[in-house]
């Protein structure tokens, strides 16, 4: 009897491993930039560039376009995914970073934008702006382009 | 509301069809599994291993079939809504407009809550103006060989202001308002212990930073005014909200002072950074500065700092150098300071070490070293220890301090600390050894 229970459990595990259950949570996010932004790197190089600009370690895109990072509201899925997969930081580390920057240089964190539509509009109007949205939300956007995508 | 649900229903019809397909496929597989399991259970002991393996193979084929169905569904492009009548098109359009109006109303409500009937403040001529600050307080007990003393010894309120003036110029000011109630503890030989801040003026205001900056690029910026002397690690972090121990290592005390170098400088600071590495993950930063120790025009110094950060490894190496003249031209009063520092900050470990040497034209040379490993017990809790050595070159000026502390951020803007320190003064000409134990609780609220 134990053998059959084992077989049943193995089959159910195989069913889950087939990807049916996890696919419900898997979302793909993208970093979008102004359509005029000529920065052409992708992959890890682009990720590192965006990381530096978002954390205000660097102020301009290559080509000397002033960067305008835009954030999402704390706890929003896009922000959580960006934090983990692009910045590679915990929320506590990020807050500590902004605290340090505020105290020593008077710099503030990027403005948080709740609405995806408003975020894309802001980016389309500001040459150096960038932000994170769901990949599926980019179909209807104008004046922006996808720099790179990452999994949530 | 009912209408809204109906419209949502229209938009979800297509997705529901996909779900039905997937549901049917999953149902079929589960039925297959259930049948197999029941069959296996009923014939417990009767089936041979070969039969069981055949059953298993059949079930695996069923799983494979299901995987194909799921893959097909996932690969299928999203179909546009098939709307057959004009009225349904209108309903869909209205729905979208209503969604947008809802979104805008949320934003307006949020703005109304923030502003309401209050006045909107404008900076006179700045394109942007940020204001913040912090309150820092401490209670300290010192237990020495001859006496014990305790006091709520430190109360600091500091305002941080930054104004952007045009594209390339900004002004940053940190204005402190201090009210100190210093401990009057002294050891038998008159060496004040602990030596924290300059407590000669218990109530005072202090302009910590007041500088204008011209930003040309990331690689070249110029600051004018009063700035934190760019040397080492902890002096540049400076602010209590960032520090595990707001009293800082011994070589930065009394505060503000110039035991090894001046904590602050009035003058000019040129700074910048550039990135290198295959992904631009490494950072080289520099400072070159010149100026005077605040309030003393004869105390001119110039110096620089180079730091290289290996981003992937969490390591930063720094070197600092300072040359100064306390009395303009009197060679005996020239001094040279050199220092190295290493910071490791990755994962659960944050470890800072600094060593400084100061060569004096007149008097004994000065040495300072500390190493401070810290461990992140939790994202908001850090335990740390510091071994701290200082030799000021003055009589009775050699001491060692052991510090152990715990820092806790209940919320990001609040830091609570509990710190124990043991300071040992070395014996010197006509001065015996002395030691003091200090317990300090402190908190910093910043906004």
Can you give keywords for this protein?
heterodimer, A: about 150 residues, alpha/beta, two-stranded antiparallel sheet, 7 strands, B: about 450 residues, alpha+beta, Porin, 4 helices, extended, disordered N terminus
What is the gist of this entry?
The complex is a heterodimer of chains A (152) and B (447). Chain A has 152 residues and is α/β, with parallel strands linked by helices.
Provide structural commentary.
The complex is a heterodimer of chains A (152) and B (447). Chain A has 152 residues and is an alpha/beta fold. Chain A has helices at residues 2-17, 43-54, 77-87, 91-105, 116-125; strands spanning 28-34, 60-61, 65-66, 68-71, 111-112, 129-134, 144-151. A five-stranded mixed beta sheet of chain A has the order 5-4-6-1-7. The longest helix of chain A is centred in the first third of the chain and has 16 residues, at 2-17. Chain B has a 16-stranded antiparallel β-barrel. In chain B, a hairpin with a 6-residue loop joins strand 13 and strand 14 (398-408). Helix content of chain B is 23%, strand content 45%. Chain B folds into two domains: 2-115, no CATH class; 128-446, Porin (Beta Barrel), CATH 2.40.160.10. At the A-B interface, helix 1, helix 2 and helix 4 of A face helix 1, helix 2, helix 3, strand 1 and strand 2 of B.
